[in-house]
Amino acid sequence: MSFINNWLRPDIKAINAYHIPPSTNMVKLDAMESPFLLSDELTGQYLTYLVDAQLNRYPSASANETQQTLRKLMDIPDEFGVLLGNGSDELIQLLALACDAQDTVLSVEPSFVMYEMIAKFARLNYQSVPLTNDFEIDADVMQKAIETHNPKLIFISYPNNPTGNVFNRIVIERIITSTKAMVVLDEAYYTYATDSFLADIAQYPNLVLLRTVSKIGFAGLRLGLLIATQDTVSQLDKLRLPYNINTLTQVSANFLLQEKNMINANASIILAERQTLFDKLVKINFLKVYLSQANFILFKALNANELFEFLKENGILIKNLSATKQLTDCLRVTIGTEEQNQKFINIVKSFYD
Ligand SMILES: *Cc1c(COP(=O)(O)O)cnc(C)c1O
């Protein structure tokens, strides 16, 4: 028996590590990244700006300028508080840390896997409510689960990863108003969706939003944010590690996230490409394609595992979800550039020919 095997908590030994597949030289359509690089002109200006970063000093602890930049980019009202995280994953972890030993975290299934993983790292009780066949939340089942488990935290991805839909707003409102839990709506895909609960924070004290810049072109920065009432943010801020947003991230964000026009233009391209890709996928008989309000499309495929492998052999990496409960034979493709999407479609077609 190795040292670590004796030493480690059994529940952590039992967890399967979050698997990041190798992707060197592949068209990477597996992780909802933006396919767009900075223009040469912007890169030049960015590098000039970076020169002033003082790496001998600790970063700004409050990261005020970065907060202001994000507020402008996302039109966050001044009256709300903002808490920054090293990716929104760190903020999910911070929320789990705020819970008591016996508390329950509730989410839906299938959804973003980090809710469950982080709840378990933090030794919290994790419960999930299955979505209906069309990936909606059954309001009555949810209500029952809230009564049974009396959760402290409810995580809802809005739009939902990996299904791509936004849930019925009325159902979400009913959840928020019928629980003592903090309800965390994870709006990682807000740019690609038609609805948001940002304005609703003013109305619901137990509503907290998560957003990130990862899905809008800046996954490498590792920058996420929690938006809630000032009250909630100033208490939760005590749990944030000092200097959690490093200098390079702050300086980069302060410069690059000013480019609201570029960010919005890139999002518009993705939205148009999502429609094009959807229309093309729908025409392939062996697929069932789900509507999406995010920068990916979920589809059920005949011989999904074989199709996934065939794509990989042909240099395209997507996400295979066919082993996930309720997602049998499902694959998820991130929207790429026109050229990448066309290549993907061609390979899917040739697989079924
Ligand atoms: C990608 C994703 C995140 C992770 O965001 P980071 O800021 O990169 O940590 C959080 N929630 C959902 C639903 C996601 O899909």
UniProtKB/TrEMBL annotation:
Positions bearing N6-(pyridoxal phosphate)lysine: K215
Family matches, as InterPro entries: Aminotransferase_I/II_large, HisP_aminotrans, PyrdxlP-dep_Trfase, PyrdxlP-dep_Trfase_major, PyrdxlP-dep_Trfase_small
Residues annotated as domain Aminotransferase class I/classII large: 53-346
Lineage: superkingdom: Bacteria
Cofactor: pyridoxal 5'-phosphate
Alphabetical list of PANTHER family matching this protein: HISTIDINOL-PHOSPHATE AMINOTRANSFERASE (PTHR42885:SF2), HISTIDINOL-PHOSPHATE AMINOTRANSFERASE-RELATED (PTHR42885)
Protein name, UniProt field: Histidinol-phosphate aminotransferase
